Amino acid sequence: MDDPTEVEVLGESRSKWPIKPRKSIAAPTVTGLPTPRRIRLTTIEDVGRELRRLYRDARAGAVDTQDASRLSFVLDRLKAVIECTTLERRLAALEMRNGEKP
Question: Looking at the DSSP assignment, which residues form a beta bridge with residue 12?
């Protein structure tokens, strides 16, 4: 099993990659093709807007539902990071106003 595209499953060598190619949402890296648009994801509102767009695209069939599920998970994690960061900043500001050390 020297092939990096294979994995051993229950003693049997199988390909890591599906036989049937799936539609991917990643932009091709070939020169001359358009690059994906840059999405602003700095606020929870931005993340919510992207989640709504992703949902509509998945419902319309423009994005594979498996890809949409994976991306929505990442967007949800990003939302959690934004929430925690915002709370940390607010808490630090309150502590500084009250003369406490963070």
Answer: 9
pLDDT digits (tens, 9 = 90+) for 67-91: 999 999 999 999 999 999 999 999 9
Task: Classify residue 67 as left (phi > 0), alpha (psi -120 to 50) or beta.
Answer: alpha
Residue-wise burial string across 65-97, b where 16 or more C-beta atoms lie within 10 A, e elsewhere: eebbeebeeebeebbeebeeeeeeeeeeeeeee
Q: How far is Cα 4 from Cα 22, in angstroms, rounded to an integer?
A: 20
From 39, 47, 37, 38, select the one nearest 85 (Cα to Cα).
Answer: 47
The one-letter code for the residue type at 77 is R
- Count of residues for the chain? 102
Task: Give the count of alpha carbons within 13 A of 25, CB side only.
Answer: 16
Q: Check if the beta carbon of residue 86 is closer than 8 Å to that of residue 48.
A: no
d(CA 6, CA 96): 56
Give this prediction's pTM: 0.60
